[in-house]
Design brief:
The structure is a homodimer of 539-residue chains. Chain A is an alpha/beta fold. In chain A, helix 8 links the parallel strand 6 and strand 7. In chain A, helix 1 crosses helix 2 and helix 8 runs parallel beside helix 9. Chain A starts with 5 loop residues before the first strand and ends with a helix. At the A-B interface, helix 4, helix 9, helix 10, helix 12 and strand 11 of A face helix 4, helix 9, helix 10, helix 12 and strand 11 of B.
């Protein structure tokens, strides 16, 4: 089997409905470009018109289009008793400038009469008119049949009529949506089988294809999607990390490996699927949600082994305790007790920085030990490779001293309803000179950052080009209240390169300070390497 | 259908394998008594002999037995080339004093030859001897066929032989274990069907019954268990909250409602199932793991609704957007307030706080407008219901003044490699008196929190009972670097109730301060309401 199966990602629309998740325009664009690099065929970008942020998202993609993926605009049918051509919501969809539009309509008679408060006939007209309108404007149409399974159980004839109406009006895909997430796999199997059968021989303007869109309210979103695929559906809708309203949508990070690696469908290619773990973690990072360590395939614990016999068995023959090789989806086997696996990680990582460590070199073990100690304290180097590079240089004795920190003071002050003032002083030794500088900021960390830059600027004028691109805070042990440990990630840039550093402390200012300082240091290091490279090139 | 289905809980054994989960003896006993009160028929308590804590667990239950549940001891077959009667591991099982023993054995030829390094014939002898030994000691036996599905795929005849050996030796249940979690629902259906068929007509000492034990490595543990049940299996093994090694076991909090409320099996009774949400949260509390808000059926968000049309539809007819009434499993419908909120959300939410707003009252529109303004500034009330309640009271003119803030100062200080010191002073007016207090902390926010409590304590001694349970920080526009806006969520508790408040500022200390202050204020408000209620009750 190498049948193609079309993956349709709705992280940016249905996924963003997850309680506690809120994506900025920039977040949405960054996620879209990651999904594009993965080669996901369809990316649902949002509902332009319902949300000003979504309008801008589509405009930005018109300026700089995606490479591999089709971005899709999502909307509902026209309002009851109106004309599609006059519907402002539909005009907003056209201005999104996508080739494809996903239109959702009502399948369940109850939703038509109670929800929309209109007649069953008018609902059919709404579906037909809206699709014909989009077709007349050159758009290709995916039709999402909302509440499909509940609707079909309640009134199969009417439900089928809505789908047939959509197909005849020019929809190319009919998508069965389990909107409330209440359906179980065996029901999916039976209903999808009956429905696809009912379409045999129907004359439609386009060859019909079917899709599935499931939610996890019964804990079976992934199983439900697979059940539909086995009945002949060839589009699967879901979200990265299963984000979505209530209990979430079908998790594409689970579905794609199941469909591609176990069932042999062609979803995103064997090379792209190796990026799945990375993309999963990237999206949780951008969404600022803690990654689910126990997520199938891509979770940190998905291929963890503890206990002696088990571990040696895995090492003899991974097949005995692993359903799949972790590297096929870019994840790693983790041996929880032994540091053997850790060492090869460190060696591999060092290599990415151009540092060739020897397995038998005691420094390698020293770095590994330091890394473990720091990770126990809450540091995380997965996303902070610049800090990891500095750590290795420290252990190797090759870390250059650009400046020595002597201390800082931060002061915040607020009276009644006034704005909160922040003032910082820093003391730094640079090239033998003690420098004391002070600066204000709109918060304690920006004040500290400003004071540090003032101190360093005369010695390292290139610092003027460094920018703090991103600043993220995660509370590590939230249960300890305001005494909790804080991890700060700072992303810096010099215009050409970007790098991330990490700091950890129970004091959020101290943690931020560590990350900001290493960010500046690493920028200076990069600058210096570039200069030495350019000297080599010149000579 | 009201067929009985036997639920078998292994939270205390397989669940405890979860990375990051560690249960004390007392934790295990508390969880066992909760499961007992739920009426779970079988509770696997551990592997006595492999673990001293587990030995004590069974002894404690001999002193004070469970009321409804059978506690079961878990162990493996005897060692190769030895005698069951002389095996110390098996003696330890007898001393646990249970009526039932669950014995696991190898089904997969690869595991016999490579893992155990013995012959296929010796493995059969190990199964037979061990079961006969337990039978001779008056124990009833459940046989867990480890790696069943992989074993059956690799060598169906041998796999079947292991099971037939177990049945003939006196096992009453044969349990199909998907140990690596790699099997998909349609494979379960097919294999279970074939296997049960293969046992038709086999003569065994007891009427045979079948069970299923699944893991979530493919994201289908629940679907897999259901598939087996539909083929005639009538014991389901799983864990509370799906805890377990790697990606976890089948989640009983998902399975029980699916099996009992959707498929009509008789698992734990209609009254007991209403305690499921409570038990789920209890177990996560004891395990000291954050509850999964997005868990099916029992999660905080499982019946949450946001978006205007949606909310008004749910209120008209819950069936339209809920696959099941939340109260059937002891959960609650939640109306979430967010920037997609319409007036009906605000009205519905106000009602949950006992505030009856009128749709035509200008105050309702004023609250909605304020909500939108604040959300534009970065406030988010989805998770901060206490701050939303205070906002409504403010608009209605019923917010009580417990104290008035006059200002604060925070000072952090670090020299060289020393620890970072934090000191805060606050000025508050309480009942006409100006109070100035100072405190230290291991970070600026804990120092502020301590100073505030010191100031309020003499006037409101109940503040001593308030705890900060959780502290979350989100950088809203990370792209602005250290000048970014910060949103802080603080969860407080008074021992009985929990509430969350929010603060937003470009200054992280100011944002934290807002949330901490509202947290204290709301605690005082709750205390006061309780007192006034108890006064009413007394009079």
């Amino acid at each position: 089997m190498t049948q193609p199966l079309w993956i349709y990602d709705t992280t940016l629309r249905d996924g963003a409905q997850r309680e506690g998740l809120s994506l900025s325009l920039d977040d949405k664009l960054r996620i879209a470009r990651q999904l594009d690099s993965l080669g996901i065929p369809f990316i649902e970008g949002g509902w332009p018109g319902a949300n000003p942020k979504d309008v801008q998202f589509f405009w930005k993609l018109q300026e700089q289009p995606l490479v591999h993926s089709e971005v899709v605009a999502f909307c509902s049918t026209r309002r009851p008793n109106s004309h599609a051509e006059e519907d402002d919501n539909l005009k907003a969809i056209l201005s999104a400038g996508t080739r494809w539009v996903t239109l959702f309509g009502k399948s369940w008679d109850l939703h038509v009469t109670e929800g929309l408060q209109t007649t069953l006939t008018e609902n059919l007209a709404m579906i037909e008119d809206t699709i014909k309108f989009f077709r007349s404007q050159g758009r290709r149409v995916i039709y999402d049949a909302e509440h499909w399974f509940d609707g079909y159980k309640a009134n199969p004839n009417y439900a089928l009529e809505t789908l047939k109406t959509a197909a005849k009006a020019g929809a190319e895909w009919l998508v069965f949506c389990d909107t409330n997430g209440g359906t179980l796999p065996h029901e999916i199997t039976q209903i999808v089988r009956e429905v696809i059968q009912a379409f045999k021989g129907l004359e439609t303007p386009f060859p019909l294809q079917f899709g599935i869109h499931t939610h996890n309210d019964s804990g079976t979103a992934v199983g439900n999607a697979i059940a539909a695929v086995l009945e002949g559906v060839n589009m699967v809708q879901g979200t990265i990390n299963g984000y979505g309203e209530r209990c979430g949508n079908a998790n594409l990070c689970t579905l794609i490996p199941n469909l591609q690696l176990k069932l042999g469908y062609n979803c995103i290619g064997d090379e792209a699927i190796k990026k799945l773990t990375e993309v999963s973690r990237f999206v949780s990072e951008v969404a600022n949600l803690a990654p689910d360590d126990h997520a199938p395939f891509v979770g940190l614990s998905a291929f963890s082994h503890k206990g002696g016999i088990h571990v040696s068995a895995v090492q003899k023959n991974p097949l005995t305790y692993e359903h799949l090789p972790p590297e096929t989806i870019g994840n790693q086997r983790r041996i929880v007790v032994s540091d053997q696996a850790g060492l090869s990680n460190v060696l591999a990582k060092a290599r990415t920085f151009g540092i060739d460590l020897d397995r038998n070199n005691p420094t390698s073990r020293k770095i590994l030990q330091q890394l473990k100690d720091l990770e126990n304290q809450g540091y995380q180097f997965e996303a902070a490779e610049a800090s990891f590079d500095l750590l290795m240089r420290e252990a190797l004795g090759t870390r250059k001293t650009f400046f020595t920190l002597k201390g800082f003071q931060v002061h915040c002050d607020k009276s009644s309803d006034e704005i909160c003032h922040a003032l910082a002083t820093v003391k730094v030794t640079i090239k033998g000179q003690d420098i004391l500088e002070a600066a204000e900021g709109n918060g304690p960390v920006s004040a500290l950052d400003a004071a540090l830059r003032k101190a360093l600027m005369n010695f390292y004028p290139m610092i003027a080009e460094f920018q703090l691109r991103d600043y993220k805070v995660r509370i590590l042990d939230g249960g300890s209240g305001t005494s909790a440990k804080t991890r700060v990630l700072v992303e810096s840039s010099n215009g050409q390169q970007r790098w991330t550093t990490v700091g950890v402390s129970t004091n959020i200012i101290d943690a931020s300070y560590q990350a900001v300082v290493e960010g500046l240091e690493y920028g200076l290091l990069l600058q210096q390497q570039e200069q030495s490279v350019s000297i080599v090139t010149v000579s």
